[in-house]
Design a protein that fits this description.
Strand content: 25-35%
Distance between the termini: 21 Å
Radius of gyration: 21 Å
Helix content: 25-40%
Strand order of the largest sheet: 6-5-4-3-2-1-18
Structural class: alpha/beta
Shape: globular
Number of strands: 18
Order of helices and strands: EEEHEHHEHEEEEEHHEEEEHEHHEHEE
Number of helices: 10
């Protein structure tokens, strides 16, 4: 059974709180697992959320501020301790290579797993698999930062009424799907394009072209909203978004489900972020993230 969901491991920004761990997000995409921005404490949050090291196939780090990367050391060592049987690939800004190496080899341990380093230096496709294409876009933050986007290849949806009109049923449907044509009837005549699902992960950044490109037509967008709109000047100065800016970006991009996260400890009421995203005009599904929450990808559009 295929599972597509976001497991939220932590939602704090620079300073964790009693109720919010530093960042950490695992995207389950069918049989693949992609861990985004493992901040300090991620390994323990994985245990609490029922996430195993074996679930991780890729690690994607947006940038090398501690709340997004200090958990790398523990996660990498856990992958090796548990002898994960498959290769794991790590993506991260190329300018932070020295930080990645320091975290990877922060202490002594026995390496048992092949960890492929795949630093990101520019916008573009990082990996293409049968299940998804992974790409990166540069963001605007005081240190080099990249956001990530997964796009499922388009498929085809069979149309029963057209199949019936051509007298195609039973095993012949599978043959048509496999071969592309059957008895003079083409696959295009009895089906329509089924758009692949799209997911984007946007962390510390001001509004920029990268934000809009990553968010475009997403089924699920995970985006930082560190500050409220009243602190927009502070957000711009520190290279962050406000809740209203995140909501407006999602509105303009046609996002179906918006997940707000990465909240400053200065705000006591997290629901204010959701209210401000709504006030900016976003009318899709909206989640104000909390630690250990599971967010399923929306069902496919009809």
């Amino acid at each position: 059974m295929s599972v597509r969901e976001l497991v939220v491991l932590g939602t704090a920004s620079q300073v964790p709180t009693r109720h919010r761990n530093h960042n950490g997000y695992l995207l389950r995409w069918d049989g693949q697992g992609i861990l985004f921005d493992p901040g300090e404490g991620t390994q323990r949050q994985m245990l609490r959320a029922g996430v195993a090291a074996h679930d991780i196939d890729r690690i994607c780090v947006t940038h090398f501020h501690g709340d997004h990367s200090l958990g790398l050391a523990g996660v990498i060592q856990r992958i090796n301790l548990d002898q994960v049987p498959h290769p794991v690939t790590a993506h991260y800004p190329a300018s932070g290579q020295r930080f990645f190496e320091r975290l990877r080899y922060a202490t002594a341990y026995r390496e048992t797993v092949k960890l492929a380093e795949a630093p990101v230096a520019e916008d573009g496709v990082l990996a293409a698999t049968p299940a998804y294409t992974l790409e990166a876009r540069r963001l605007s933050h005081p240190v080099e930062s990249f956001g990530y986007r997964l796009t499922e290849p388009d498929g085809r949806r069979m149309l029963p009424e057209r199949l019936a009109a051509h007298g195609i049923a039973g095993p012949d449907v599978g043959r048509l799907q496999r071969d592309g044509a059957l008895g003079g009837v083409t696959l295009e005549q009895v089906s329509e394009v089924r758009r692949g699902q799209r997911f984007a992960f946007v962390m510390d950044t001001r509004l920029c072209d990268g934000v809009h490109a990553l968010a475009e037509d997403c089924d699920l967008l995970v985006i930082e909203s560190t500050f409220t709109d009243e602190d927009a000047a502070l957000a711009a100065d520190h290279g962050h978004l406000t809740a209203g800016q995140a909501g407006a970006a999602a509105r303009d991009a046609g996002v179906r489900h918006l997940v707000l996260t990465h909240f400053s400890q200065r705000y006591a009421d997290p629901e204010v972020f959701g209210r401000q995203a709504r006030a900016a005009g976003f009318d899709g599904e909206l989640t104000v993230a909390r630690d250990l929450l599971r967010v399923p990808l929306p069902k496919r559009s009809p």
